[in-house]
Amino acid sequence: MRMQPRQQLLEVWRATARSSAKNGKWIWGGRDGANSISDAEQLLCLMIPATGVESFKLDQPNATEEHVAAALRNLGDPMEIPQRLVRVLTEYMERYTDTDGTPVFSGDTYFRTVDPEDEPTAAQTALDVVDSFAMSVTLALATVGFLRVFRSELRREDIRREVDKLEKLASKRLTAAMIGLLRSFTVYVFDADSREGRALVRTANQSGLPPRQVVERLRRALRQVSATLREVTIGSGAAQVPDLDNPNRLFECGWSWGIAKDAPVVDVGDDVGVQRDGVAQAAPYLYFTVVALDGIAALFSERTRILGLLNEEQQRLARALQIRWDLTQQYWSTIASFDPVRWPLEDIPWRTNDELENDYFSLLVTAVTVQDLVSRQASDVELERVGRVLEELANRGRITRRPLGTDSAIAMHAPGVRFDLLGSDDPGGPQLAWVVSDFSPLLLKRTIQVAGLARDTELRGRLLAQADVIWDHLERRRLKSGPGHALWDQPSGVFSQVDSHGDQPSWYYTERVVECLVTAANLVSRAPLRSEMLSELATELLNEADHLFDRELLGGAGEAGPALRNSLQTARASLRRARDVLGDRPGTAFVLASDVLRELEQLAAARQDVFEVE
Question: Is there a smaller number of Cβ atoms within 10 Å at the N or the C end of the chain?
Fold first, then answer.
């Protein structure tokens, strides 16, 4: 991979530390100002690599790598860095906690208005949003995991008290964020002949079947999902489930933009403060569904399980969220691949049930489909189809193709895709909107994930080559000067039609690029793909090399002079090493066996020359 994730992560850390820590203080806020999401994203630029990539860990100061410590020199030496992080994380947790102890998950400065001339009210900017819930789950888990390891290194009692305080704050915020996600989940039921029903049937019907037949097939394909939804008893979504028994009803499930209107309070034993009333429309938004799925996945990751990061109450909430995670994955992947001849996903652009269509929606559905492929270890045939969709989206998004002078695709990157937040005007004030511009990093992340799943070397190679092209696009969007130098985002670096956005970093965009780099780093750290053909060739070469080596020994070469004995000892070591790595790295075994054969041939040729002279 040309992107070299280790070097890029070190550069991001260096730039993050330089722009965030000044004169002993942590500078909150970037291009979009400070809020519970942006500040979490700023911290995650450090915490995701520190807890997700082994060589970047900071929780054991004596084991911190030299280059890693050098990148964060602005935060102190290897002993001071984790202590500084503890204090900054504590500051974040306290900064976004109300005076009554309730964690705050507001969108604040990230909220926009549908009419740019309007200004949101204070009550509106304080509304909870799913983005903040999901980011808080990721940050809280990273924090608690970091503290569990760091605590074992501590000897000073005052620092132990700081760690204990932070862990309590992070655990409380984690519980509150999980409750928020449970109360934001929704099941939206509608008639098959309604506008939404006709739109869903049109999306699924890629073979021109009669609508009634498609409805029956959809209900049959989603039978398991609708049956399991009846087990949803915690949080929102349960009230609509009885309507699924009607044979003329269809549905969709996922996450709304915030706590759903009339969402019931979740009973918990832990004190998490006030559970605020919801105002969000009880219908899924594709963007917020993908964000929620990504955040929830961290709850049942291997790291969470091994370190035991969840208490008993959180484990109960996590099980409830995992049911919704599984059902949502199954629902959207079923719709995306409903017609085996031509998947609805392949009919770009995706059209939502409220009859909006955009390439970004296709990417969001692809993102859910990729997560489903990861969970069930899909075949290369399915991965090939998803890979083609990702390639097409890269073309249509003008990442791998040059944009036209007035290209509508540029709007996906800047200013981004707007979602109207229905119900946000309930507290009084104008209707709010949410603008997202993460098309490129989301595309890169899913491309790397599909490449990591592929077992076919040609498919993986093609996808990684595509990932390198997308990375080249992102590289050109880095800030070239100012406080955010080497961070993101400057779309004018790629699209001359876009005005410059200044020199402040966008933590929203930078954090998503960091996720891509961590995904790439973990892919590189895995064992390479094992080619059966190469394995067979390597085995044949080893068999021949073993035989010729034994023949040399039989001919008395082992009793020859020191030079020949050293050569044979080297050959023996190479053959032993080749046998050891044959299972995982047949290419390496192939090269080692080739070297031994070449050495043995040189010995045979030398012996032949001596014989001819005599």
Answer: C
